[in-house]
């Protein structure tokens, strides 16, 4: 593939990702017990734009369902999916490891532990919804740094050792979280529902809590694409080009952990998005992180909105936990990626 054609892949897949995200969001808003067709939804939003002579066809009840239930849920799904996908792509770039993922590196387990500590309070920690993103961020940093240091010191830093270290750290943090839950049995149902993952609990209030953190994380991650491309050339080459690899890794790890924590704080534990989406994007848009990060952000949002539609409709009127739906997709995909990675290593 020529250089000129490769340069066109970025804008092309950005456009495709934007169309996919908008289409998924319209479908997500229309899915549910209350009848709202995509045409009615588009017409409603157009009617709210000044100077456009478009009349809405929705009644007050449909408009309330749209504004208070459907739109915040779908916007939250798009945000969480984009955060997890871009964080996964960033971790893969920092560690040069195709299996790096917020959930396989201990970041999500750490974020879950931090959020659980705030949710249950326990009399020895401050509690409140405003503290959940902060506690989740600190927990995510502890998780990912523990997995990275354990993988380097105990296993040499290879793909297999990093993966095993991430599993060990995640298991330990999850066990600690379970212990805390059992110590506060009165909060068990609330924490358990949050752990399974879902988008129907936060609403506009939850979005308002995490948008500032998410905005910072996304800005840093999107701005780090060029630096991650330089790191892919090797540390010596990056240094010769004026880049400080250690500083870049620290900044990107902090930003990816903040993105993971923001997602976990409002949606609970939803796995495999950060593994599945960046791999698909890499196949479609090419290996450069200047393309992978923004395209992953869009496709990650579309992926999770579609997964949420499945969670709401497969067993309607009951609702599947969103983490179950993504696990059904992500677990087989993880096996395929692991086999491909082992085949290339031989």
Automatic annotation (TrEMBL):
It comes from the Bacteria. The chain crosses the membrane at residues 12-36, 71-91, 103-124, 131-150, 162-180, 201-227, 247-280, 292-314, 320-338. One of its GO terms (biological process) is siderophore-iron import into cell. One of its GO terms (cellular component) is plasma membrane. Keywords: Cell membrane, Membrane, Transmembrane, Transmembrane helix, Transport. Belongs to the binding-protein-dependent transport system permease family. FecCD subfamily. This is ABC-type transporter, permease. The lineage of its organism: Bacteria, Bacillati, Actinomycetota, Actinomycetes, Streptosporangiales.
């Amino acid at each position: 593939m020529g250089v000129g054609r490769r340069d066109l892949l970025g804008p092309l897949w950005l456009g495709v990702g934007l169309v996919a995200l908008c289409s998924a969001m319209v479908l997500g808003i229309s899915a549910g017990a209350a009848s709202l067709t995509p045409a009615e939804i588009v017409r409603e939003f157009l009617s709210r734009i000044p100077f456009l002579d478009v009349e809405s066809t929705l009644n007050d009840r449909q408009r309330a369902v749209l504004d208070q239930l459907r739109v915040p849920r779908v916007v939250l799904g798009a945000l969480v999916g984009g955060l997890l996908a871009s964080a996964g792509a960033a971790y893969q770039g920092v560690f040069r490891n195709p299996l790096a993922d917020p959930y396989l590196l201990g970041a999500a387990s750490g974020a879950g532990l931090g959020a659980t500590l705030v949710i249950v309070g326990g009399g020895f920690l401050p509690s409140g919804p405003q503290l959940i993103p902060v506690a989740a961020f600190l927990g995510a940093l502890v998780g990912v740094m523990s997995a990275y240091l354990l993988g380097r010191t105990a296993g040499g830093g290879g793909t297999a050792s990093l993966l095993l270290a991430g599993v060990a750290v995640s298991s330990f943090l999850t066990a600690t979280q379970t212990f805390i839950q059992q110590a506060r049995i009165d909060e068990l149902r609330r924490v358990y529902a949050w752990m399974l993952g879902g988008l129907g609990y936060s609403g506009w209030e939850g979005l308002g809590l995490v948008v500032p953190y998410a905005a910072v994380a996304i800005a840093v991650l999107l701005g780090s694409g060029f630096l991650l491309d330089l790191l892919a050339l090797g540390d010596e080459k990056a240094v010769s080009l004026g880049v400080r690899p250690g500083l870049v890794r620290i900044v990107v790890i902090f930003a990816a952990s903040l993105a993971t924590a923001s997602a976990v704080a409002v949606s609970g534990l939803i796995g495999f998005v950060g593994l599945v989406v960046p791999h698909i994007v890499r196949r479609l848009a090419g290996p450069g992180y200047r393309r992978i990060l923004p395209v992953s952000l869009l496709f990650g949002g579309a992926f999770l909105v579609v997964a949420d539609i499945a969670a709401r409709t497969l067993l309607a009127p009951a609702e599947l936990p969103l983490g179950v739906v993504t696990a059904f997709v992500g677990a087989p995909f993880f096996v395929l990626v692991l086999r491909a990675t082992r085949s290339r290593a031989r």
